[in-house]
Every structure is written in C-alpha cells, then in structure tokens.
User: What shape does this take?
Amino acid sequence: MSYLDQITSPTLLINEKITRANLKRMADKASRHGKKLVPHWKTAQSHEIGNWAKEYGIREVTASSIKLAEYLCGQGWDNIHIAFPFNVREIDRLNRLAANKSLSVQVVNPVTAKKLADQLSERVGFYIEIDAGYGRTGVHISDFGTIEEILREAKKSDKLQFKGFYLHPGHTYYTPDKSGIYEQSRQALHMLKVKYQSEFPNLLTRVGDTPGCAVMEDFGDVDELGPGNFVFFDLMQAELGSCAKEDIAVCLAVPVVDINKERKEILIHGGGVHLAKDVLVDASGNKNFGEVVFLTESGWTIPSDRSYLKSISQEHGVIKASDSLMASVQIGDLLGILPVHSCMTADCMGEYLSLDGRKIDHCEGACWK
Assistant: This one.
C-alpha cells in the first residue's frame, strides 16, 4: 500500500533520506572544525528523528521548553539544554527531571539565578545568554555588572554549575551580511572566554542559528554549534541561501477541494492550523505561504514553473496555479506544499508520515498529550 493511499486530510510528510543528509552535513561540518554539534530540537521534536541524529555522533540536544526537555528524557541524550530564559515557576519540575537526567538551563538575570540557587535540590548546569546585537533576549555583551551578579548568585549553591555563554545571532535571518554578524558574535564570545576562562577553565561558548551555521566556515574559538532548522530546512532558509529547495525534508500533503479556472486558483484543505502563518513577500508585494510540489511514490518533485499558496485562513488555502498545474490538477488530487517555516508547521501538525507509510512521533502529537 502506498503512503499516498493513507492520506485523506492534511498530513506532514518527512523524507528520511533528505533529513539524514541534512544531519550528516552539519555533523561533518562541526567535526571538520573541531566543534561539538548540539542541535536545537525545537524543529524536529521527535524521538525517532533523534535516533537518526545519534547515528551521526550527536550526543547532546537543546530543547525550547521544559515540556520538550521532559519529552526527550529517557532517550539516551548525554545532556539536554533548555535554551529559553528559564521560567522560575518551573523549578519544581526541573528538580524532578534533574534527579534522573543531566540538564542545563539558560539564565539572563540575577533574580532567576538567585531563585535557582535557593531552590534547586539537584545539580543543574547553566549558560548565560548573551545579546550581541539581536535584541530579543540575553545580557548585553557590555553589561559585565549583570554577568558578574549572575555568577555571584550561582556561587551560593553547589547545585548550580556555570557552563558558559550562549549566543543566538538571530538577526542573520534579516540581513545578507551573515559573515559580519558572525564576526561580531565570534569576537563577543572570544572576549568573554578570555575574560572568564581563568576563573572557569572548563567554560564553553555556543552559537546557534541555522543561516550562519549553514553557510559560515570560520567559527573562531567557539566550542559548540547549536542550529535547529537545518534538520528540515524550509522556504525561508532557501531564500536566505542556507539551502536549496531540494534540501527541504518535509512537505504538507493537502487535498484539492475546488478549482477556479477563471482565476487560475486551486482551493486546498490546508491552512493556518496546519502550516502556521509565516509568509514570504516578493518584490511585487505578493504573499507566499508555501510552494507546490508534486507528490510521488519516492517523495516529491519541484516543478519548473512555480505555483504558490497566495492566501490561507484557518482550514482553507488558495493556490495561485501555473498553467501546467491548472491543466493537470483534478478535484480530489493530493498536492504537496513546501512550508515557509518548517518548525512551526511540524509543531502545528504534531506527527510525521514517512514515505514508507510509518507515523513518526512529535512532542505535540496526540500520543504525548
């Protein structure tokens, strides 16, 4: 039975071969540069895909929440890092998990450091997140007073272990000057390493974003790489130059429910609840919520003439179709949609269907809820 015969409603497909190639490519790059790859698992959020990653020497992983960290516990990871400014309301939950698992968290202020030092009953590592220009979160690179205060509070507890500095240069998503941003990031982490390494000889520095990690070859003395989206990639990454569209490892299979020949539009069952609402906008102002691919027994093919999802609502999606697609499509057909943002699409869908017809787990899936 073909995997296509199982699909009656929007279904997120995963191409294992492409996923493995993406994992291997990044693992090889990290090894080539003498860095440890600690991927951010907010993209895949899967036990099975985690097992694929381990085959390429990946032994540690990063989570976006304590919920995801809990889901990943018991899966053989050497350490799980929660890369989000720690929420002090979850200290009890952290203690429960840390009783049986090596965990680390992210600290961005002295108040959180003090509460962790006062309330931890288990040993937990922490990174100080640094802001070197992104502006979303983290201690500003020049704010040594806050860094010192966090370290002073942590020293009051033998349960809270300083591991190093974490920097997410997320502004690589918004500028073509990735090399300039990475030079700034490398210099920031190098400066902190020089300043604090005598006191903390095992101090680590980690940088993590897919656009930079995918294209850069000079990481300086950074110890660890922590990208996430590279596992699947997506249209946004392709537009940024991080990958080719052929490297995108997931697509949403959607049924065709209506065809408007006059407007050259195709109505699909597939909307914001399946893809999220991330969008790309071209030079003419046209919105693109995903691009059409043709599903085959071995995956999907990218047509030479582009058709794209011009609008979405909750369950509806409207495709602006090419002439060749209009000539061939029929109501009841299945089309594939390459997502703009694979992390959000996977989170919306909560599970994957492999090309050999197997369901693959996701943290947000029904079996976990």
